Amino acid sequence: MIIEKLALVTANSASLQPFYSDILGFPVIRSEQGSFTVQAGWSELTFQETSDEADGEHYYHFAFTIPENKLPEAKAWIEARVPIGTEAGEDVSYSESWNSHSVYFEDPAGNILELIARHTMDNSVERPFDPKQDIICISEIGVPTADIPAAVEHLAKLGLMSYKTTNESFNPIGDDNGLLLVVSTGRRWHFTNKTAESFPVRVHIREAGELSFSSNEHGLTIENIN
Asked: What is the pLDDT of residues 135-171, one digit of tens each?
């Protein structure tokens, strides 16, 4: 599953843009009053200001794929710029079922970002880590919901199927290239003290077009807005 574009909301885009352009070094594609878009590998990431007062507390979890052999160098690069998350005294996450290593960090708005090296992918490089070349794409976005089975069923009708191990509170959809992390609201995000909450998301998936996710007390509303 290829995530070509991801659009999220924020309380203040002007204060957030320098983190992505200056700290992470992502090229700015568009910048205007109330929004900006940066290029992250083959993916575009947009933050759009919202007038909803509650949006000041909004945060998302999303991940960037890096070459499978570059996690140590990528970790050194990012922790020289921002604090990285820890859990049980560890600052690197290893998933045996996914065969991947990750590090986590936050942007100034509290969004939870991840650099993930998936050892199932044939994308190693034999040069020093270069974020301009080696942040390959956005490969995960969390979409919390109160009703995981309903969301999974809806996405299956769009041809987007479950990935590897699932359980009652976590059901990733997609493949190594890209995943929608369908998780239960209230579930703790890995390597943080934050719980998963549902906020508006728009994602353009090559295989399914543009999808809009919003929530209510019954679960996710998923619209295909092609």
From this structure: 999 999 999 999 999 999 999 999 999 999 899 999 9
**Which residues have a Cβ under 8 Å from the Cβ of 90 and sit 6 or more positions away?**
none
Identify whether the C-beta of residue 103 lies closer than 8 Å to the C-beta of residue 71: yes
Tell me the CATH number at 134: 3.10.180.10
How far is the CA of 167 from the CAs of 3, 163, 171, 181, 203, in angstroms? 24, 11, 6, 12, 24
The count of residues in the chain is 226
CA–CA gap between residue 60 and residue 10 (Å, rounded) = 10
Query: For residue 187, how far is the Cα from the chain centroid?
Result: 16
Query: How many structural domains comprise the chain?
Result: 1
| 215 backbone dihedrals φ, ψ, rounded to 5° | -130, 160
